[in-house]
Every structure is written in structure tokens, then in C-alpha cells.
Write a structure and sequence with these properties.
Length: 84
């Protein structure tokens, strides 16, 4: 008999989410850390190219231009990413 288990990433949102950690199996509220991505840098470059250079820092200050990475507060394992 062949048994196959798939690790499906849990659905996470832009803010802290209640979830059962796949690593430590505890019910936790995730820690969220936002991270700049290539998209963030491209938006900043486009603002600079189109002479909006005073606004270049805006994508780095706005969470909506970044990915939200979720981590377990108990074991620190990576749970998932929310991308807009």
C-alpha cells in the first residue's frame, strides 16, 4: 500500500493569523515580518525615472508594497507568505 502525505501551506493573510504550527503542532498566533521584494525596488525605480524622486522612499515605508512572512512564535519556523 502506498501512502502519500502532502505538506500544504496554510492560508495566511496580511496580519497575524491563528493557526496550528505544522512544525511544533501548537495553536499559535503567527508573528508577521514584512520584507521588501523585487516589486518594491521596481516601484521605487519607476518613481525615480518618472521624476517623482521625493516619493522614492514610499514603497519601503508601506506594508502594502511588501510581502508578509509568517513565523511561529514558539519554535520560530517559517509558516507562509502573503503576497499582494
Amino acid at each position: 500500500m502506498y501512502v502519500c502525505f502532502f505538506s500544504i501551506a496554510p492560508a495566511v493573510g496580511p496580519s497575524s493569523t491563528g493557526i496550528v504550527c505544522p512544525s511544533c503542532r501548537l495553536s499559535v498566533m503567527t508573528n508577521v515580518r514584512t520584507e521588501s521584494t523585487t516589486r518594491t525596488h521596481v516601484i521605487a525605480i519607476l518613481l525615480c525615472v518618472f521624476l517623482c524622486w521625493p516619493c522614492v522612499c514610499l514603497p519601503y515605508c508601506m506594508d502594502s508594497c511588501k510581502n508578509a512572512n509568517h513565523y511561529c512564535p514558539n519554535c520560530g519556523s517559517f509558516i507562509g507568505t502573503y503576497q499582494k
